[in-house]
Amino acid sequence: MARRLFSLCVSREKKRRRTADPTDKMAVDGGHRNSGCDWDGRWNHVRKFLERPGPFTHPDFEPSTESLQFLLETCKILVIGAGGLGCELLKNLALSGFRLIHVVDMDTIDVSNLNRQFLFRPKDVGRPKAEVAADFINTRIPGCKVVPHFKKIQDFDDSFYRQFHIIVCGLDSIIARRWMNGMLISLLSYEDGVLDPSSIIPLIDGGTEGFKGNARVILPGMTACIDCTLELYPPQINFPMCTIASMPRLPEHCIEYARILQWPKENPFGDISLDGDNPDHIQWVFDRSQERAAEFSITGVTYRLTQGVVKRIIPAVASTNAVIAASCAMEVFKIATSAYIPLNNYLVFNDVDGLYTYTFEAERKENCSACSQVPQDLQFPPSAKLQEVLEYLTENASLQMKSPAITTTLEGKNKTLYLQSVKSIEERTRPNLCKTLKDEKNDVRFALIKFYYHHHIVSFVVMFGSDQIRSSSESSSEGEMKLIPLARPSLWGLLLLCLCSRAEATGNRSSRGHTGSSQERTGTCEVVAAHRCCNRNKIEERSQTVKCSCFPGQVAGTTRARPSCVDASIVRQKWWCRMEPCLEGEECRVLPDLTGWSCISGNKVKTTKLDDDPGEIHPRFSGYEGGETVFIVFIHGQGLGRGAALFWTGPGTSSVA
Amino acid sequence: MAATQASKEQKYDRQLRLWGDHGQETLENAHVCLVNATATGTEILKNLVLPGIGAFTIVDGHTVSGEDVGNNFFLSNNSIGKNRAQAATELLQEMNSDVSGNFVEESPDKLLDNDPEFFHRFTIVIGVHLPESTCMRLGSVLWSASVPFLVCKTYGLIGYMRLVVQEHTVIESHPDNALEDLRLDQPFSEFKNHIQSYDLDSMDKKDHSHTPWIIIVAKYLEKWLSEHNCQAPKNYKEKEAFRQIIREGVRKNENGVPEDEENFEEAVKNVNTALNPTKVPTALEDLFNSEQCNNITSQTPAFWVMLRAVKEFVHNEGSGSLPVRGTIPDMIADSQKFISLQNIYREKAMQDTAAVSKHVERLLQSVGKPPESISEKDIKLLCKNASFLRVVRCRSLAEEYSVDSVNKDEITSCMDSPDSEMVFYLMLRAVDRFYQQHSRYPGVYNYQVEEDISKLKLCVNSLLQEYSLNVNIKDDYIHEFCRYGAAEPHTVAAFLGGSAAQEAIKIISHQFVPFSNTFIYNAMSQTSATLHL
Question: Which Pfam family, any one of them, does this sequence belong to (chain B) (predicted)?
Fold first, then answer.
């Protein structure tokens, strides 16, 4: 029973199964199993690796006829992506004996998928990839039970991901990979700083581009994660705006001109954004690009190139996907069965010139912002502008954050300094980018800045060291800003606490006299009614109705247990903890179904659950026990037609119906 | 059921960006033969049917077994008992209506007995899981007919491929990190004049900061050469000094602080590669000196005629250099300056191509062929890719297997490290020997595993003895191969399916470079090696 990797993910099930029916197995092992869908010889190719000892197996491997049953009946695999790699993965896993497979994909089938995504036919164009792929596999491979999810990975919470033994990714986006990586890291549990191996869900990740690809095995918390090796992903090529606008040289520059500058100005199809899948749109961009190219005597604008630039198409071919998915599936098999030692831990493949593979051990980054739990100090000069900090976050090879939100906390309130994703806020906060972190009088302007990325991945706290700060922290020297990425919410809460107390020392001064920054103009909330009553459990409920006047792009929310205006995107995306709803010293956790959050300190848990539709307030209150005071806060945002009802419940109510 | 051109373009869009319309055309004209529709075989064909080869034919005399359906996606359990070629053809063909699927319900041995010429019609033949004797027979038929042959085998966690092609020429090898062809060390006269048209000192600020870095390097190189006896910077020290001169050229503002001139920064960054001397790559020199290049007949393929013409060009008009490639990388510059510089290179490339065309014409004339038998387009393509031309030559299977011509050096030097992938090659050969002697593979049934270990060991020893190979094969490998019991796990088959299909596409399209000549994949450690046998 001592299978190291095996036991990482699957020991519990095995044990349970063994004690449940210790004798039955013997009887069925020899003959047909799952009668009706298995036939003679069906698993011969697989069984040789499970039932025979060998010199190269994992040290914990025990040959057994039960291993096949485990694959067929118990081992649960999640495949993320039903595209080029996903189709291959489903086939490979199903033919290797895995039957309990889930597949998640948010895409529908496009004609251009058909050259490699072999589970799709022309008649399927427009249908969800996950569903068509699952149907095909379940029909072709008897007994296989692929469950499709036509959804985004972000639509699921940790309870969904926790049910799988192994997760395989066939994604085309680094952002999605990082999200998945962050999710699996957030599932890890540590006891006294020691990783609990049963909380590890191995992640197998594949990627391809043209004739190149890679496959890797990630044991979150143990081996290099996606964020540890961000440098391995090539940065996206973006052309400088001045090149596009005034001195194009390449056909690509002309296409970008039409796409970025001409389209929004001319709105040729009305007020709709450019759709790369709409041939009329592409044709328009192509025509404009040709005109611009002719003006500058640039050659080489073609329809295909236009489409490629607009949609940022990555060339893809069946063969590379086949190779990479095969390697990934092989690793899933190894981990699930211990039949062999898994890949350690990165395979690179390239068949442009001959056939080339390279296998190496990607190393964990000591201060990885996702998996290391180690705060990272990044120094900025005293004259650094917010713009420079932003550029660093987005361009630094090991961070590569996409549209991070930048906020600061002043007097315990959350203020947006810069937010790219909401247009109105972007425009309003843009002037902040030119500001230095210290003002002319050498006062601290932004004492405490936070950067938000995926809530599962990183929160950054930027601190500008002033004299006062230095007095309370010897490690930060004068004139430097500290950037502290924190991976895990618990740690985040703790550090937040100590930083906030420092920030208060400078808070008064820093909020003075910056008309350009948004914090002063941030909407205010006032309590319009306070209610007090006892419910039938004789527990006092307090609620207040609050009126907030928020700026466009903001809605009513909760910050530090008080009503506040928060960025609408936080509410929309349900990244509740970004509002900092909890008090200092409390750890914030988003509820698994994203319907609210918990504030945790010690063994005290305050859970807040929001109504599904923030436009209407129907606070639902559910069971709680104990004698703690409970209070409800109604917060109603005005002028936006939406509000959020927030209420807290008593201790121990970690799950609210 | 051929799709319309427009819908084909959409369907194949992602791969057309890799091999172009002309590459796709070669695929659509290709007829691929697969011998044995095992899991590995159908996975290979799958990855050829999807990108749209013209036609395939499966040759297979086996009937489908339960075991076959267990690891093969293109067989279903209701095909058990039917002919395997037919069953697989149905499910493969179903994937892509542009492809015509055919099957022959006969063993390759029978076909070789009765109609060996059957195999001559194919663009490439892929033989999977062939016994050694069949493989050798088929190999020799195809070798003499100059039909490329790709041998594939999945055995346990080991994948094996052998490419057998006499000569394979590649014009578009699509190198990953090619050096630019800028001729800064020997500027042609039009380029020289163009450089002269710039006067960095008298330019206004905007023009100065938008002068392409190529011009900047060329300007400062002129200066350097005049001060250094016409010797360009060679070593690190000299190049660093040269960079410093360029840095000093950056304009300064009224306070003496250097301006932000990104084009100068680019120039400094590019000094190292830009000063690489222009010369004919040695691999290309070798091709110039090869028999095919020097002995042009009416039978000579176009590639060699064009190559000879390039050689003539190098020795005449080119004064030792290849035709100018005619492309420059993007760089900081305003549109007008960039485009006019680009045109200088482009026009020179056109001139050079025209000169090569003249040589082609003359060569064709000399062997009595019309000048239009080689198109301008092809000549242009070859000239543009002149530095990257590749020729792959493989030995025949007969040479590899003969005791007299076996590549002992390669085998023994690899086996200096006993866990080299070479050991799997030797094990596969030993397993073939086992099959020849026992008409079955070792360890297929559980009860055979133990007894087959010693039998397989005998085969290993007799193989090593026959070829007088003084190498040691660890017993672990013999145990492992008996454990495999000829199993063909789907994942290994799928890996080979992807890689073999791509090699076939390279052979068909004459783009990218095929491996030569033996490839081993070890799924246990996820490593691979290319061996020369």
Answer: ThiF
Task: Note whether B481 and B156 are within 8 A (CB).
Answer: yes
Chain segment A288-338, per-residue pLDDT in tens? 999 999 999 999 999 999 999 999 999 999 999 999 999 999 999 999 999
Beta bridge partners of A556: A565
Nearest CB among A42, A315, A333 relative to B15 is that of: A315
Judge whether B108 is closer than 8 Å to chain A, CB to CB. Answer: no
Strand order in the sheet with B518-522: B100-104, B55-59, B31-35, B124-128, B149-155, B158-164, B518-522, B527-531
Claim to verify: residue A80 and residue A188 sit in the same structural domain: yes
Is residue B54 included in any domain, yes or no?
A: yes
Chain B hits for A48, Cβ within 8 Å = 156, 443, 483-485, 487
Q: Within this chain, do residues B261 and B123 fall inside the same structural domain, yes or no?
A: no
Residues B321 and B464 occupy one common structural domain: no
Q: Which residue segment(s) compose the domain that A307 sits in?
A: 241-311
| pTM (2 d.p.) | 0.79
Side chain identity, residue B104: V
Contacts of A215 in chain B (CB under 8 A): 526
Q: Report which of residues B233 and A519 the model is more confident about.
A: B233
Annotation marks residue A242 as catalytic: yes
Say yes or no: A545 and A423 in one domain: no
Q: Are A506 and A444 in contact (CB under 8 A)?
A: yes
| Cα B358 from Cα A146, distance rounded (Å) | 63
Phi then psi dihedrals of residue A436, to 5 deg = -85, 165
Return the minimum-mean-pLDDT range out of A595-599, A612-616, A640-644, B516-520: A640-644
3-class DSSP string for A311-332: HCCCCCCHHHHHHHHHHHHHHH
Domain count across chain B: 4
Residue with tokens 């040691």: B472
Distance from CA of A86 to the nearest CA of B (A): 14
In tens, the pLDDT along A67-104 reads 999 999 999 999 999 999 999 999 999 999 999 999 99
Angstroms from B111 CA to nearest CA on chain A: 29
Domain holding B146, by residue range, is: 1-173+488-531
Tell me if B14 and A322 make a contact (CB, 8 A cut-off). Answer: no
Query: In terms of domains, do A253 and A166 share one?
Result: no
Q: Are A322 and B40 in contact (CB under 8 A)?
A: no
Interface check for B239 against chain A (CB to CB < 8 A): the answer is no
Taking the Cβ of residue A326 and every Cβ of chain B, the question of whether any pair is shorter than 8 Å is answered with yes
Q: Is B501 an interface residue toward A (CB < 8 Å)?
A: yes
**With contacts defined as CB-CB under 8 Å, which chain A residues touch B484?**
48
Mean pLDDT of chain A: 72
Which residues have CB under 8 Å from A282's CB, separation 6+? Answer: A276, A303, A306, A307, A310
